[in-house]
Amino acid sequence: MLTYAICEISGKQYKVVPNTSFEVARQEGDKDITASILLLSEDGKIKIGNPYLKDKLILKRVEDIKGPKIRVSKFHAKANFRKTIGYRSKLTKVVYSVKS
Predict the structure, then answer these.
(1) What letter does residue 27 receive in the DSSP assignment?
(2) Residue 16: pLDDT over 70
(3) pTM score, whole prediction
(4) Which of 20, 18, 57 lies closest to 37 in space, CA to CA?
């Protein structure tokens, strides 16, 4: 049984634990996400890819969400310049569910 895996999605690496959701950068489309596996831990045995294993993980898309709001301020001393903007990253919540 899969204990955990390190996979790559859109150039970023994530630790995947079965039946635990996590957030990745927004993925287009409504289909499930396929992830390349870098490291796989099953029953205490570790497999390391070079750079990837031949297996792929199929991650189920749960929902598209927005991340927390980040406030960015710019300030120039003695020039009376102040600018504040906000930013919210677009994320996709995914989960790897083990089939019993």
Answers:
(1) -
(2) yes
(3) 0.82
(4) 57
